[in-house]
Amino acid sequence: MDDTQAKSAAERYEACRTIDEGCSRAMAVCVDMIDAVCAIGVRNELHAVRDALQRLHAAAASAHDEAARTRMN
After folding, report:
1. What pTM was computed for the model?
2. Sequence-distant (≥ 6) Cβ neighbours of residue 9 within 8 angstroms
3. Could you say which of 8, 18, 23, 36 is the most buried, measured as most Cβ atoms within 10 Å of its Cβ?
4. How far is CA 16 from the centre of its chain?
5. pLDDT tier, 37 (very low <50, low <70, confident <90, very high otherwise)
6. 3-class secondary structure per residue, the chain
7. pLDDT exceeds 70 at position 71
8. At what angle do helices 3-37 and 43-72 cross, to 10 degrees?
9. How far apart, in whole angstroms, are the C-alpha atoms of residue 41 and residue 33?
10. Over the stretch 5-34, which tens digit does the pLDDT of each residue have?
């Protein structure tokens, strides 16, 4: 693998790690907020946000694994 590909894989790997960490924190906040917001009627919206974050998290994890494999080659 040439230097450009290695750098690109490393950058993708780091970006995926950052997204993964951010999604994990955001999902934790959503879970904490869901119970509190039942009283104000936005429970469904927070569930939708949490679900979207879980899908983004899964995509980032997949891209992270792919970048890690590319980086190792």
Report:
1. 0.51
2. 1, 67, 70, 71
3. 23
4. 7
5. low
6. CCHHHHHHHHHHHHHHHHHHHHHHHHHHHHHHHHHHHHHHCCHHHHHHHHHHHHHHHHHHHHHHHHHHHHHHC
7. yes
8. 160
9. 12
10. 667 888 888 888 888 888 888 888 877 777
Residue type, 36: A
Looking at residue 2, what is its pLDDT?
64
Say which residues have a Cβ less than 8 Å from residue 37's Cβ, sequence separation at least 6.
Answer: 43, 46
Whether residue 43 contacts residue 66, with contact meaning beta carbons closer than 8 Å, is answered with no
Q: What is the mean pLDDT of the chain?
A: 80
**Residue whose token pair is 């039942």:** 38
Instruction: Please report the pLDDT score of residue 56 as a whole number.
Output: 87
